[in-house]
Automatic annotation (TrEMBL):
It comes from the Eukaryota. This is DUF4371 domain-containing protein. It comes from Pelodiscus sinensis (Chinese softshell turtle).
Length: 335
């Protein structure tokens, strides 16, 4: 079946276009009659004008263009004003939801604050109220979920286009004390190395999650290197990965370098380190001690007023021993 396409010149016969089931259908701007796709030819359109609207045959193109504006207010397809306005409203919801998630704010802020601010600003500046923009808690969550799916699709497409890629595995603990698996991927994009965060802890669990992700048309054969954080669950992960591709190399992450060095310190330095940690935790474990120490530092004119808490027992929220010591050193006399 031949698909005829609409031409802007057909407006001089008083016809616009309406999309239906993937086909362009001519629609009369005067009587709103919709013809078949086969009627998209000058002879058929002119015949309709002569037969049904003979008094309008001498009207200029601008006359029918004005009729089209009235018709758009009634049309419900993608060319109508209703759909175009709705599309802008949906676009605004997604853009604002993206700003909310970037700022790490609660979803409900869209409805309780952002929308109210928009309405007030629009009322003052434009004299209109854009109440159709949906920013409810559920709407913001749905928009964020859609954005996440789109971002994941973009990452997958970028990996597919890259000749090779590497991954780095890490885990962290969020504010709700849930452990989250983090997988960073490094790939080649437009001739440059690009790194993106792809997704969300026994080695078998890590392997299963990555395998499920790689089923999205990604190939183990393109994976050339794996970097782990050298803790617990990831120790057996490399072995499982090498079962998929024996040519894969491994790299150890050194972000916890101070913790590794601390394990091999001489006894005298190790005792000093433990004493510093014990004193710091004594101050930080008590709100009263923390306030008293801050007041003391203020009175003595110290550059710092607080100490860093040693979070050794909280996986994924570990404060560097180097950071602790750099803060303890200038405050040692106050301690």
């Amino acid at each position: 079946i031949k698909k005829r396409q609409y031409d802007e010149d057909y407006m001089k016969y008083g016809f616009t276009v309406m999309e239906k089931n993937g086909f362009n259908h001519p629609q009369c701007t005067v009587c709103h009659t919709v013809l078949s796709n086969d009627a998209l030819r000058p002879s058929r359109l002119e015949q309709h004008l002569m037969k049904n609207h003979s008094a309008l045959t001498d009207k200029p193109r601008e006359f029918f263009a004005a009729k089209l504006q009235n018709l758009k207010c009634l049309k419900l397809d993608i060319t109508g004003s209703f759909h175009q306005v709705s599309a802008k409203v949906v676009e605004a919801s997604y853009e604002l939801s993206l700003l909310i998630v970037k700022a790490k704010k609660a979803h409900i802020i869209g409805e309780t604050l952002v929308k109210l601010c928009l309405l007030k600003a629009a009322d003052i500046l434009l004299g209109v109220k854009s109440k159709k923009t949906s920013l409810s808690d559920n709407s913001v969550k749905r928009c964020i979920d859609d954005l996440a799916k789109d971002l994941k699709l973009q990452v997958v497409e970028a990996v597919l286009a890259s000749p090779f890629f590497t991954i780095q595995c890490d885990d962290t603990t969020d504010v709700a004390r849930y452990r989250q698996l983090l997988i960073y991927i490094r790939l080649i994009n437009d001739g440059t190395v690009k790194e993106e965060l792809m997704t969300t802890s026994k080695a078998s669990d890590v392997m299963k999650m990555i395998s499920d992700f790689l089923k999205k048309r990604l190939s183990w054969g393109k994976l050339v290197d794996v970097c782990t954080e050298m803790v617990g669950s990831c120790s057996g992960f490399v072995t499982l990965v090498k079962e998929k591709n024996t040519a894969i190399t491994t790299t150890h992450c050194d972000i916890h370098g101070q913790a590794l060095v601390a394990k091999t310190l001489p006894d005298d330095l190790h005792d000093s380190l433990n004493l510093a940690i014990k004193v710091v935790n004594f101050v930080k474990n008590s709100a009263l001690n923390t306030r008293l120490f801050a007041a003391l530092c203020t009175d003595l004119g110290a550059d710092h007023k607080t100490l860093l808490f040693h979070t050794k027992d909280l996986p994924g929220r570990k404060t560097s021993l180097g950071q602790i010591n750099r803060r303890v050193l200038p405050l040692r006399h106050r301690l």
